[in-house]
């Protein structure tokens, strides 16, 4: 069971690393409900979470979460002590604190630029987090921490990104204009024009064929020498016969 859970966590982490550029140390925003569940189930968050996510982590919360835990009194005193050990991330509610769930939602607005994980047992908050792409969700079930699988919103975002549907038309035009300004478009055109095309037959092969033909047309030098020798012998014989004939007369 533990190996299966670890395998799923590794697969889900790979999804967020590859598609949303999550890097170590992973920043995990925790609310009071998660701290309370960890206390009740005797889970050591700081010690166990890095091993589960297979990487260094930074556990953090917000002032609004701490204020909320203080207002709930003794019932959540243990959860408040746990949350106070974490780093406090600045939120936009300095003067007017809001609920912990509302504060955490505000921290992941505009595409979750700080790559926060959200750790909560609040089902309503979890449902709202799932409606935002690129926000990993952690919760506790059966005395163990679980990284939820990517939400349909995250999957749809990645699919659109792969089909290049998320780039607005005006941004595409801006990219083209920047390329033209830097001369990249002209360079790309020159590279296309310089591409080699398929040529005709190898001229060297033609030369070899011509050379072979001239050699076939020429007679061997040894044959020429034999012909010359026979011609000289014939001339000498005729001359000898003529001399002999004159002597006889």
UniProtKB/TrEMBL annotation:
Region (Disordered) residue spans: 168-249
UTP23 sensor motif region domain residues: 192-211
Protein name, UniProt field: rRNA-processing protein UTP23 homolog
Species of the source: Aquila chrysaetos chrysaetos
Localization: Nucleus, Nucleolus
Biased composition (Polar residues): 239-249
Signal peptide: none
InterPro entries: Fcf1/UTP23, PIN-like_dom_sf, UTP23_sensor
GO CC, any one term: small-subunit processome
Family annotation (SUPFAM superfamilies): PIN domain-like
Compositionally biased tracts (Basic and acidic residues): 178-191
Any one Gene Ontology molecular-function term assigned to this protein's record: mRNA 5'-UTR binding
Role, per record: Involved in rRNA-processing and ribosome biogenesis.
Feature: compositional bias, Basic residues: 224-234
GO biological process: endonucleolytic cleavage in 5'-ETS of tricistronic rRNA transcript (SSU-rRNA, 5.8S rRNA, LSU-rRNA)
CDD domains hit by this protein: PIN_Fcf1-Utp23-H
Major localisation: nucleus
Domain of life: Eukaryota
Similarity field: Belongs to the UTP23/FCF1 family. UTP23 subfamily.
Keywords of the record: Nucleus, Ribosome biogenesis, rRNA processing
Designated gene of the protein: UTP23
